[in-house]
C-alpha cells in the first residue's frame, strides 16, 4: 500500500506542472502586449487547478471560477455594482456584435473573454497532463512560444527558459516515473523521485554557475531581414521611386518609399528599463513630409547642469533614472530619453538645445560642432495619470494652438471626416486621441517596410496611406495619427528617434541594449493642458513603452471626477502599472548578493565530494552502523527480528543481491545461501517467517536469530 | 520448485506408500493429499493410462478407506450415481439403495463423457456433502473425497464442464507422462506382481478426520490473506483474462494453503504455499479471452504472470 503522502504528491504535482506551464504563457504578455495585471490571470489559472484538485462537482467549481471572474472584473473596471456587471458585459458584446465591429470590444468584455479562454485552456491542459500524462506537446509549444517571443519581440525569455528547462527535466522524470509505476507494480518510485529531484537540480546549478559562451549564432532577426532584403536590392530593374529611407535620416520633407534594412549599431545603452530614445521633433506637415519650425531659439547648458526644460507639470509622477550611452557612430547631437535632466561627459561640451525641434547639438564654447561618444544621462521616467489626462481641458493659447494644429490647405476633407468618425462618441480629449491611436490596430493596416508607396504629385502622404495603400512603417502611422489628431484641433507633434533596441545583456544591475539603425522610429506626442507632451504609439506591432496608470480606486473617488468619467470604456493598456525598479529586486536576488554564487558552488562541491566518498565506502561502515544500532535497541523479540531482518534485506540488496518483488523470502534465502555457501539465511528466514506470517517466535529461537543475523550482516561488509 | 521441507511423519508415510505404485509423481501425490486434508476434491485432467486410477486406489488403501468407482458414460443417469429407492414388498415401503457415490473416496472416471444432468448430480453431492433421493436427504460419509478424471476437452464425445461446476473442484491436476527412467523403474516394479497388494494402511479414517480438523486450524496472517487477495484481484485485471477468479477462488486458495502448510509441518501459511498452489487452485477458475490463445497464452501461463506481477509481502502489517 502506498503511503498517503506519496498519493497526495502524485495528484498535486501534475496539477502544479500544468498550472505552471500555463502561467509561462501569461508572464510575457505584460511585455509584448499592453495587458496589465497579469497577476490576476495567473491567480485565476492557479484557482482553476486548485478546484480541479479538489474534484469538486462541476457546478461548484464553475461557480467558484465565475465568482472569481466577477470579482476580478469588478476590481479592475469601474462597474457601478457587481450586479450590473453581467448586464454591462451583455450590452458591450451586443454593441460590438451589432454595431461597429471596426473598433475593439470594450476592455471589460475582452478581459472577460480572456478569462473564459484561460478556463478552457486549463481544462484542456488538465486533461492532457493530469489525466493522460501527455505533457510533451504543451511543453514543446511553451518552449517555442518563449523562444519566438524572445527572438522577435521586446521580451527577454532568459528566466523563463531556465524555469522551463528545470520544469521540463523535472516533469519528464516525474511523470515518466508515474507511468512506469502504473504499469509495473513493483516499481520503486521513491528512489526514482529522489533522482528526479537531485539530478536536474545539480545540472541546473552547474549550468547556472558555470561560465557561458557568448551567442554562437548571429542574431537570426537581422539575418532574416538582410536575407529578405537581399534579392530585392539586386533585382533593381525598376529604379526605386526616388525616395527611400535607410535607418535614421535627417530630411523628412518627402516621406514614403521602402525602408531599407541597415544593421549598423548606432549606440549601446546601459539603462534600467525600456523607453524610446528621442532625437528631435518636427511640426510642420506639408502633405508630403515634415519640415522644421522656423525658429532659432536655443537653450544652452553644460555638463552636469540641469537643462531647465520643464517636460511635464507635477501631475505626472516621475522617478529619476540614469542611463549610459556609448555611441558607435560619429554624431554631433544627443540621443536622449524623454524627461532629460542632465548630461555628463568627460569632455568640456556645451549642449545647445534647438527649442523648435528639441534637438540637442554638442558644441564647444564657440559653437563649433563637437562629436560625442560616451555620456551619462539623468532623466525622469514618467508615469502618466489617466484621470488627469481625462480631466485636461482644451488648449486655449492661440499661437501655440496654431503652431501644433497646422495642416496643409491641400489636406483632403475625407481625412478630417475620418478623424471625426473615429472619435465619434468619445467625450474627453484623451479618449479621442486614444481612439485614433487604436484605430490602426483593427482596420486592415499592416506594417510593411519594403512595399511602401510614395505619394504622387497631387497626392497627400497621409491620405494615400489611410485610404489607399494601408501599408507602411512607423512614419506612415505616426504622421497619420498627428494629422488626424490635429484635424480635431488637438495639438500634436511628430517625434523621431529610436526604439529601445534589443536587450543584449546585463551589467552592474542595469540592462544593456543594443540599438541599431534599423531601430530608427517615429511616434506621436500630444499636448494636454496642464500636463504637457504625452507620447503615443500608433504603429502596429509596437507597444508604447511609457507607463499610464489608473489611480487606485479609493484615490479615484477622492479626485475630482469630470462628467466624462461616466463612459466605462477604459482601454486595457491604460491599466498598465509598471513596478518601480526598487520593487523589482526579489528576495532571491538579495540572497544572491549576500551569498555569492562562487561560495555556494564551492560549498556544494565539497558537500558533493563528501557525499560521494561516503557513498563509495558505504559497505565498510554502513553494516557496522547497523550492527551497532540493532545491538543497542531494546525491543520485544518479534519486533526486533522484523526490523533487523528488514535492515538485512537492505544491506543484501546494496551488496548486489536484489530480491525481485515477486520472490518469496525462501526463494531469496536460497539464492543468498548459494552465494555465501552457507545455510544461515535459510535458517534465519524460517525464524523470521514465524514472526511475520506466523503467531510469533519462540523465545529460545531469538538468540539463534540474533547470531545468524549478525553473521549475515558481517558477510555484507567488504 | 516445491517447498524444501519435510512432511509431517504420517503423511510422509502415505506419500511413500503411493510412490511405490506411482513413480516420480511426488508433487501430484502431495497435492492430492492437500485437497483431501482441505476437504476439497480433485479434478485430474489427463490422457488414459498415466496412473490416475492407481493413485486413487493407493490413496484409499493407505487410509483403509472405502473406495468406489463410477465410470461415466453418455447413458449414465443421476440415479446410477446417487442411488435409488426401491419398493420392498415385504416391508411394504420404499427402501434406499445407495449409489456408488456413498463412499469415503470416489473415483469419478471420465466425468466429461456423461450428460450434464448426471454431472450436476455428482457435483451437487460434492458441494453439499449429502444426497437427496425422493425428498429424503442423506449425509455422505466423512471424509468424502472425489477424485474426478477427465479427458482433455479437445477429445471427441465430451460434455465440457461449465465454469460454475469446475469451481467445485479445489484443485485441478495433471499427471503427465513419466520420464524414460521412471518408466523403466515402473516396468521393473510391475514385472512380477502388483505392488498395490503390498500397501499397508497408515492410518484409519478416524485419524484422517482429525488431521482434517487440525489442517483447518492453521493460522493465516493478515499479510498472507492480503497477498492472496492481491493475486486474485490481479487476475481480474489481467488483459488476457475474460473472467477472473471469484471470491470463492480466494477462499479455496486459502483453504488449500492451510492444508499445504499443515502437510509441511507448519502451523502458519507462508507466501510460498500460496505461490505453489496458485496454478492448481486458480487455473480452472479463469476464463482466458479467445484471442489470447493466439499468443499461446493458457491459464497456467497467466497464473505465472500474475505471480510475477504481485509483490510478495515480506513485512508484517503494522
UniProtKB/TrEMBL annotation, chain A:
Keyword Lipid metabolism part of the UniProt annotation: no
Residue span(s) of domain Transglutaminase-like: 466-540
Keywords: Membrane, Transmembrane, Transmembrane helix
Transmembrane domains' residue ranges: 34-54, 66-85, 108-129, 136-155, 161-180, 192-210, 595-617
Highest taxon listed in the record's lineage: Bacteria
Keyword Repressor assigned: no
Name of this protein: DUF3488 and DUF4129 domain-containing transglutaminase family protein
UniProtKB/TrEMBL annotation, chain B:
InterPro entries: ATPase_AAA-3 (IPR011703), CbbQ/NirQ/NorQ/GpvN (IPR050764), ChlI/MoxR_AAA_lid (IPR041628), P-loop_NTPase (IPR027417)
Span of domain ChlI/MoxR AAA lid: 234-302
Annotated ranges, domain ATPase AAA-3: 41-171
Pfam families in the cross-refs: AAA_3, AAA_lid_2
Gene3D superfamilies: Magnesium chelatase subunit I, C-Terminal domain (1.10.8.80), P-loop containing nucleotide triphosphate hydrolases (3.40.50.300)
PANTHER family: METHANOL DEHYDROGENASE REGULATOR, MOXR FAMILY PROTEIN
Name of the molecule in the record: AAA family ATPase
Organism: Geobacillus jurassicus
Amino acid at each position: 500500500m502506498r503511503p498517503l503522502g506519496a498519493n497526495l504528491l502524485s495528484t498535486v504535482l501534475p496539477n502544479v506542472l500544468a498550472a505552471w506551464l500555463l502561467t509561462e504563457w501569461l508572464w510575457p504578455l505584460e511585455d509584448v502586449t499592453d495587458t496589465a495585471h497579469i497577476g490576476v490571470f495567473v491567480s485565476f489559472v492557479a484557482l482553476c487547478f486548485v478546484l480541479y484538485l479538489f474534484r469538486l462537482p462541476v457546478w461548484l467549481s464553475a461557480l467558484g471560477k465565475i465568482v472569481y471572474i466577477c470579482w476580478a472584473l469588478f476590481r479592475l473596471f469601474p462597474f457601478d455594482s457587481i450586479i450590473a456587471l453581467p448586464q454591462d458585459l451583455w450590452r458591450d458584446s451586443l454593441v460590438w456584435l451589432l454595431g461597429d465591429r471596426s473598433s475593439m470590444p470594450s476592455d471589460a468584455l475582452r478581459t472577460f473573454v480572456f478569462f473564459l479562454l484561460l478556463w478552457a485552456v486549463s481544462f484542456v491542459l488538465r486533461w492532457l497532463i493530469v489525466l493522460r500524462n501527455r505533457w510533451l506537446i504543451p511543453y514543446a509549444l511553451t518552449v517555442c512560444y518563449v523562444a519566438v517571443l524572445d527572438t522577435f519581440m521586446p521580451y527577454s525569455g532568459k528566466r523563463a527558459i531556465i524555469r522551463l528547462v528545470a520544469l521540463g527535466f523535472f516533469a519528464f522524470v516525474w511523470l515518466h516515473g508515474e507511468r512506469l509505476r502504473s504499469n509495473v507494480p513493483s516499481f520503486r518510485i521513491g528512489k526514482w523521485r529522489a533522482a528526479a529531484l537531485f539530478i536536474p537540480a545539480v545540472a541546473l546549478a552547474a549550468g547556472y554557475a558555470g561560465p557561458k559562451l557568448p551567442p554562437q549564432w548571429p542574431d537570426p532577426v537581422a539575418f532574416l531581414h538582410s536575407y529578405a532584403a537581399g534579392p530585392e536590392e539586386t533585382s533593381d530593374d525598376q529604379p526605386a521611386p526616388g525616395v527611400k529611407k535607410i535607418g535614421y535620416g535627417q530630411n523628412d520633407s518627402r516621406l514614403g518609399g521602402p525602408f531599407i534594412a541597415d544593421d549598423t549599431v548606432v549606440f549601446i545603452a546601459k539603462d534600467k528599463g525600456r523607453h524610446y530614445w528621442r532625437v528631435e521633433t518636427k511640426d510642420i506637415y506639408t502633405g508630403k513630409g515634415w519640415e522644421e519650425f522656423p525658429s532659432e531659439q536655443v537653450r544652452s547648458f553644460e555638463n552636469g547642469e540641469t537643462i531647465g526644460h520643464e517636460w511635464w507639470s507635477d501631475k505626472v509622477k516621475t522617478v529619476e533614472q540614469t542611463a549610459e550611452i556609448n555611441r558607435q557612430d560619429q554624431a554631433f547631437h544627443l540621443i536622449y530619453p524623454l524627461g532629460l535632466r542632465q548630461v555628463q561627459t568627460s569632455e568640456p561640451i556645451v549642449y545647445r538645445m534647438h527649442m523648435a525641434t528639441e534637438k540637442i547639438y554638442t558644441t564647444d564654447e564657440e559653437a563649433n560642432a563637437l562629436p560625442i561618444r560616451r555620456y551619462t544621462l539623468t532623466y525622469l521616467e514618467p508615469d502618466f495619470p489617466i484621470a488627469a489626462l481625462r480631466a485636461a481641458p482644451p488648449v486655449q493659447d492661440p499661437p501655440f494652438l496654431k503652431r501644433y494644429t497646422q495642416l496643409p490647405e491641400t489636406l483632403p476633407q475625407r481625412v478630417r471626416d475620418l478623424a471625426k468618425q473615429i472619435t465619434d462618441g468619445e467625450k474627453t480629449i484623451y479618449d479621442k486621441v486614444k481612439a485614433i491611436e487604436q484605430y490602426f490596430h483593427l482596420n486592415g493596416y499592416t506594417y510593411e517596410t519594403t512595399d511602401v508607396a510614395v505619394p504622387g504629385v497631387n497626392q497627400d502622404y497621409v491620405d494615400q496611406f489611410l485610404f489607399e495603400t494601408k501599408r507602411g512603417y512607423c512614419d506612415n502611422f505616426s504622421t497619420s495619427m498627428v494629422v488626424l489628431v490635429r484635424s480635431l484641433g488637438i495639438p500634436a507633434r511628430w517625434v523621431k528617434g529610436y526604439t529601445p533596441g534589443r536587450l543584449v545583456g546585463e551589467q552592474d544591475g542595469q540592462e544593456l541594449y543594443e540599438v541599431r539603425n534599423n531601430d530608427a522610429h517615429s511616434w506621436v506626442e500630444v499636448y494636454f493642458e496642464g500636463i504637457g507632451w504625452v507620447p503615443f504609439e500608433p504603429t502596429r506591432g509596437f507597444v508604447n513603452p511609457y507607463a499610464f496608470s489608473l489611480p487606485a480606486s479609493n484615490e479615484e473617488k477622492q479626485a475630482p471626477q469630470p462628467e466624462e468619467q461616466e463612459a466605462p470604456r477604459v482601454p486595457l493598456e491604460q491599466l498598465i502599472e509598471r513596478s518601480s525598479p526598487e520593487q523589482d529586486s526579489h528576495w532571491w536576488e538579495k540572497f544572491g548578493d549576500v551569498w555569492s554564487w562562487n561560495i555556494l558552488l564551492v560549498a556544494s562541491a565539497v558537500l558533493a565530494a563528501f557525499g560521494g566518498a561516503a557513498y563509495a565506502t558505504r559497505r565498510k561502515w554502513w553494516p557496522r552502523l547497523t550492527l551497532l544500532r540493532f545491538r543497542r535497541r531494546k525491543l520485544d523479540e518479534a519486533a526486533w527480528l522484523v526490523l533487523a531482518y528488514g535492515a538485512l534485506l537492505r544491506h543484501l540488496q546494496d551488496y548486489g543481491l536484489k530480491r525481485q518483488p515477486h520472490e518469496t523470502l525462501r526463494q531469496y534465502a536460497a539464492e543468498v545461501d548459494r552465494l555465501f555457501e552457507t545455510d544461515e539465511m535459510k535458517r534465519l528466514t524460517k525464524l523470521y517467517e514465524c514472526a511475520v506470517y506466523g503467531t510469533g517466535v519462540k523465545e529460545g529461537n531469538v538468540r539463534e536469530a540474533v547470531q545468524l543475523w549478525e553473521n549475515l550482516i558481517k558477510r555484507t561488509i567488504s | 520448485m516445491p517447498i524444501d521441507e519435510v512432511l509431517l511423519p504420517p503423511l510422509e508415510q502415505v506419500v511413500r506408500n503411493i510412490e511405490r505404485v506411482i513413480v516420480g509423481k511426488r508433487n501430484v501425490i502431495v497435492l492430492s493429499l492437500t485437497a483431501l486434508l482441505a476437504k476439497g476434491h480433485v479434478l485430474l485432467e489427463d490422457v488414459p493410462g498415466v496412473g490416475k486410477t492407481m493413485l486413487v486406489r493407493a490413496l484409499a488403501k493407505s487410509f483403509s478407506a472405502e473406495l468406489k468407482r463410477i465410470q461415466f458414460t453418455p447413458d449414465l443417469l443421476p440415479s446410477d450415481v446417487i442411488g435409488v429407492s426401491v419398493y420392498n414388498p415385504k416391508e411394504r415401503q420404499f427402501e434406499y439403495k445407495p449409489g456408488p457415490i456413498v463412499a469415503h473416496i470416489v473415483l469419478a472416471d471420465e466425468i466429461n463423457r456423461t450428460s450434464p444432468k448426471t454431472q450436476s448430480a455428482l457435483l451437487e453431492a460434492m458441494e453439499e456433502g449429502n444426497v437427496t433421493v425422493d425428498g429424503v436427504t442423506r449425509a455422505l460419509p466423512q471424509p468424502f473425497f472425489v477424485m474426478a478424471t477427465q479427458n482433455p476437452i479437445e477429445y471427441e464425445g465430451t460434455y465440457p464442464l461449465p465454469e460454475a461446476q469446475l469451481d467445485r473442484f479445489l484443485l485441478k491436476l495433471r499427471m503427465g507422462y513419466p520420464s524414460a527412467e521412471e518408466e523403466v523403474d515402473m516396468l521393473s516394479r510391475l514385472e512380477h506382481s502388483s505392488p498395490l497388494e503390498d500397501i499397508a494402511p497408515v492410518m484409519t479414517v478416524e485419524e484422517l478426520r482429525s488431521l482434517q480438523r487440525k489442517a483447518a486450524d492453521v493460522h493465516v496472517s493478515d499479510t498472507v490473506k492480503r497477498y492472496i487477495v492481491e493475486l486474485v484481484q490481479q487476475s481480474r485485471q489481467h488483459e488476457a483474462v475474460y473472467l477472473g477468479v471469484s471470491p470463492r477462488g480466494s477462499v479455496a486458495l486459502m483453504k488449500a494453503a492451510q492444508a499445504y502448510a499443515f502437510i509441511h509441518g507448519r502451523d502458519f501459511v507462508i507466501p510460498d504455499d500460496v505461490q505453489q498452489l496458485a496454478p492448481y487452485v486458480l487455473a480452472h477458475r479463469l476464463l482466458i479471452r479467445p484471442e489470447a490463445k493466439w499468443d499461446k497464452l493458457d491459464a497456467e501461463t497467466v497464473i505465472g504472470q500474475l505471480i510475477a506481477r504481485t509483490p510478495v509481502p515480506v513485512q508484517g502489517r503494522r
